[in-house]
Amino acid sequence: EVQLVESGGELVQPGGSLRLSCATSGFTFDDYGMSWVRQAPGKGLEWVGSINWDGVTTAYAESLKVRFTISRDNAKNTLYLQMNKLESGDTAVYYCANMKSDYWGQGTLVTVSS
Fold first, then answer.
1. Second label for 1, Cα 20 to 30 Å away, from 15, 16, 27, 109?
2. Which pLDDT does position 112 carry in this prediction?
3. Angle (nearest 5°) at CA 92 between 90 and 95
4. Could you read off the pLDDT of 36-53 as tens digits, one per residue?
5. Per-residue DSSP letter, 17
6. What integer is the mean pLDDT of 56-75?
7. What is the 8-class DSSP label of residue 9?
8. How many C-beta atoms lie closer than 10 Å to residue 24's C-beta?
């Protein structure tokens, strides 16, 4: 059974930082690039960024690339999203995804508010 389980979402003040994790199982993690996608309240899905299978290459939405960093630990089958200088506009449910296989997690909620 394929599982992607995000964690780390919480309420954080503007300017703060968070690191999200996505623990995976049920597929060969290091065979695939992985992505983070978010959905703000009342809005559609927004691609955050992606990382290739070995973590060497990353790509980000232009508006996020200065503040967000994606990494992975293939030994732990885990994907990460480091988010810095968070803004209210970053409030969203964050999903990790293996887009090639269309595997998605259930999401973790990040709320940025004072």
1. 109
2. 98
3. 115
4. 999 999 999 999 999 999
5. -
6. 97
7. -
8. 22
Cβ-Cβ contacts under 8 Å for 31 (sequence gap 6 or more)? 53
Residues sharing a CB contact under 8 Å with residue 50, sequence separation 6 or more, in sequence order? 33, 34, 35, 36, 58, 59, 70, 99
pLDDT at 66 (0 to 100):
97
Give φ, ψ of 107 to 5 degrees.
95, 155
Tokens in use for 6?
């995000």
* CA-to-CA separations, 19 to 7, 67, 95, 110, 113, in angstroms, rounded: 9, 12, 13, 10, 17
SS3 4: strand
The tokens describing 95, both together, are 């999903």
Pair 113, 92: CB distance under 8 Å: no
Determine the Cα–Cα distance for residues 4 and 98; give it in Å rounded to an integer: 9
